Amino acid sequence: MVRAIALAVALLIVSNARADEVKVIAVKGAKCSMCVDTITEALTAVTGVKAAKVDLKKKTATVTFDPEVVTLPELEKAVAAAGYDANATKRDPKAYKELPGCCR
User: Fold this and answer.
1) What mean pLDDT comes out for the span 11-39?
2) Average pLDDT taken over every residue of the chain
3) Which of 50, 56, 49 minimizes the C-alpha distance to 103?
4) Helix, strand, coil % (nearest 5) of the chain?
């Protein structure tokens, strides 16, 4: 009986666990390791983001996040606010001007 209750509780916990989402964001304008750091920091600063990995060659950012806390458009806005295009979301012109010369 105790085992049955423990199993039921465990199943309930697992069924209520939120599944993280993984999305790939096209990042236009990333050119160097400083760009990678800036984009990664912008994404990981967003509440609900579990991980972010920027691929400079592919010009993408792969983001693992809790979809009940943050949405893909919010992640795109975070990248844009850092000065980079993210999918169809255009970069913030002021943030772009403040990027180091190698990143523009």
Assistant:
1) 84
2) 89
3) 56
4) 45, 25, 35
